[in-house]
């Protein structure tokens, strides 16, 4: 009997390890940790409420993909009092490609959902588990999963916005601009109508991006860990991962929301030039004296939500 109990315990332990939901990864990058780091220089910041309003339907840990040792899941939010098919907004969290979870964008997600959208926030494999293009592959799979399950959540997939913050902004832009051009991974079945890039890189290969993302004083950077090499060892991969290189006449209307730290939105001005040349709508909402991660905290979060909502309603 004792041996049977031990066997059962071992089986449960193995299964729980095998099917760990990916939110267990990257927990060192949390609202609380960022708050503690920023409060000294920005004493006015406040943590937002993460209590989901009663008027919002919330679906947590919705599994969309199984990978080697666990599953990938997403959170989905939509207005409770609406039965109509609503535009889809997919939000991609940041964390230097190596940390973070969908929980970071919880308040932004349900706040945007309250404005008449279905909002999904998928997890993806971090660089500590799998290098580029694994995360892009995961996010494309998430988009395709949402397409397949659109009836279940009353989603209008003809209206799609991709929103990403920091590393998530770079990945959202790559998916939004590439539209079937990616050769190293699978591609989404649906086309983005809107991109909102919050402090995410447009080009890994600009001088300011390389100064930080390929810093010679560091053995490895967050970007080189994700891309699997330093720039000089594989410049083509850094080029391939730069959203700016995929901008074309079918690229979506784009809103850039940025802090005062230029390194995080490297390539923005050139991207705007390329988009405007093609007649594609671009807008910039710039916060003065705001830190990276401003969108996670008050007093900047309310204005971030307002800017996103206004752009979404104009473009979708």
Keywords:
316 residues, alpha/beta, Rossmann fold, 9-stranded mixed β-sheet, 10 helices, BD-FAE-like_dom, AB_hydrolase_fold, hydrolase activity, GDXG_lipolytic_enzyme
User: What is the arithmetic mean of pLDDT?
Assistant: 92
Kindly report the name of the CATH homologous superfamily.
Alpha/Beta hydrolase fold, catalytic domain
Number of domains: 1
State the CATH topology: Rossmann fold
- Strand percentage lies at 15-25%
Protein structure class: alpha/beta
Largest beta-sheet characterization: 9 strands, mixed
Helices, by number, come to 10
The CATH architecture:
3-Layer(aba) Sandwich
End-to-end Cα distance, whole Å, is: 62 Å
What is the 3D form?
globular
> Which ranges are low-confidence, i.e. pLDDT below 50, for 5 or more consecutive residues?
7-25
Order of secondary-structure elements: HEHEEEHEHEHEHHHEHEH
Under CATH at level 1, the class stands as Alpha Beta
DSSP summary, beta strand count: 9
Share of helical residues: 25-40%
Spatial extent as radius of gyration = 19 Å
Pfam family, one: BD-FAE
InterPro entries: AB_hydrolase_fold, BD-FAE-like_dom, GDXG_lipolytic_enzyme
Keywords: Hydrolase
GO molecular function: hydrolase activity
